Amino acid sequence: MKKSPNHRLSDQVLFALGRASQHAQRLVRQHMTEGGVRTLHYHVLASLADDGEAVQATLADRIGMDRSDLVTLLDELEELKMLARRVDAADRRRKIVAITPAGEQHLEDMDRLILGAEADLLQPLTAAERKTLLSLLRRVSGD
C-alpha cells in the first residue's frame, strides 16, 4: 500500500525511516519464504552463533521472545539437527542450547537470503550512497 507523497509526514525523517524499515522487513520475509526458511529460526541460530550457547531463558530474553513460545521453536530446530540441548550441570532443571554444524550451515544460507533482500532494497542506490546511508544509520542509532 503506497502512501501519497503528499502525506502530512512525508517530509519527516521518522516517517521515511519507518517506511523504509517496513519495506526492508517485507523483502526479508519474501526472500526467507522463497528460500523455504523461517525468520524466527534465523533469530535463534544467529543469537547462538554470535553470542554463544545459552540457557533457554537467556536465549528467549536475547531475542525478545516469550519463553514458552521459544520451546516450540527449539523443538523444531532440534528435530532438524540445527541445535542441540543439554542439561546444565550446575542446575539440572535448566537446559543449555547450542548451535550445531548443520545449524551454522543453515544460518549461512539464511544470511545469503538476507543479503539478497538487502540488495533488492538498496538497488536504487550507488555504492557510495549505500556506504553513506549505513554510516548515517549507525550514527543515529548510536552504534
UniProtKB/TrEMBL annotation:
SUPFAM superfamilies xref list: Winged helix' DNA-binding domain
Organism domain of life: Bacteria
A Pfam family reported for this protein in Swiss-Prot or TrEMBL: MarR_2
Domain HTH marR-type intervals: 10-142
Cross-referenced InterPro entries: HTH_MarR-typ, MarR/SlyA-like, WH-like_DNA-bd_sf, WH_DNA-bd_sf
PROSITE patterns the record matches: HTH_MARR_2
Alphabetized PANTHER family for the sequence: HTH-TYPE TRANSCRIPTIONAL REPRESSOR YETL, TRANSCRIPTIONAL REGULATOR, MARR FAMILY
Protein name as catalogued: HTH marR-type domain-containing protein
Lineage: Bacteria, Bacillati, Actinomycetota, Actinomycetes, Propionibacteriales
